[in-house]
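Hi R.,

Here are the chain sequences for the assembly we discussed:
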Amino acid sequence: MTDKELIRQINNKNESAFKILVDKYQELVLNVCNNFLHNKEDAYDVSQEVFIEIYKSSHKFKFKSKLSTWIYRISVNKSLNYIRNNKKRSILKSIESVFFDVDTEQSVYSKIVSEPSKNLEYNESKDILRKALNTLAKNQKTVFILNKYEDLSYSEISEILNISVSNVGVLLIRAKKKLQKYVIDYYKNN
Amino acid sequence: MKCETIQNNLIFYIDKELDNQVMLDIETHLKNCDECLAIYKKLNNVYGYKTEKLDVQEFYFSDLKKRMDKEKNHMFLESKNNVFLVKKLLVAAVLVIGLFIGVLMGNYYNNVEISQNPTEIENEVFDNDSYETAFLE
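And here is the predicted structure of the full complex:
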């Protein structure tokens, strides 16, 4: 079934068509949300909100862009909204996860036992990157995540965020410079 | 190249986004500068970190369906509550209008009674008038 046909069927509230769409884009949506939220449970939760939004507003999609672009856009917006609405909660969670990896307690424990220094370094890198990402402006962070973790091209990002390709480039350079500065300063001061 | 220039470009060096000559210059510098090499390694570790890729979840769609049904029920209940609220408001409005009409009608009938059955004072005035008229005559 083509994307066009899928959307047409979903407009008619066809549940099996919706299931096909969910199966097709589940991994993409989950990972985009996880790249923004750094938390599996939150990513799962927000990804479901994304699909509910798709189901509710499928009639608004007029195929002016690719379906995946539209889905990326909803995923990014939902994730950013979630961060904004749950800022306090996320801070507490990230502090908690720095000291104790809630999601993969067992696996992390076994890794630390087998390779202690490597995993401490791994957790430290994860923590510094998360903090560095939090210092970025919202649009810089979004462009950076879509390019670095989703491997999207400048033109794909420009389509998702409705900004020019050159703007994507500028935001990405700024994001990288800011990240670099944060990391270098961190190591120089510690 | 100075250490500062090198350190300002390390992230682009990692991404191989620099001119060939600059890439070579940085590479040579890193071989000879322990400080820049240490920073490069740290930055590479942090920058190279990728979040764990999440796989397809087995009960994803059934969870989603449950959530959608719950949301639909919630919306239904909300609309039911809204209907109930509208009904309450309608009853209140009817009562207020009824009260208003009642007061108006009460006033109206009072006035009608006054004009049809003159009170004692009015009778007195009427008597005085006829007396005055008789005196003048």
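Residues 102-114 of chain A have pLDDT under 50 and may be disordered. The CA atoms of residues 29 and 71 of chain A lie 8 Å apart.

Let me know if anything looks off.

Best,
T.
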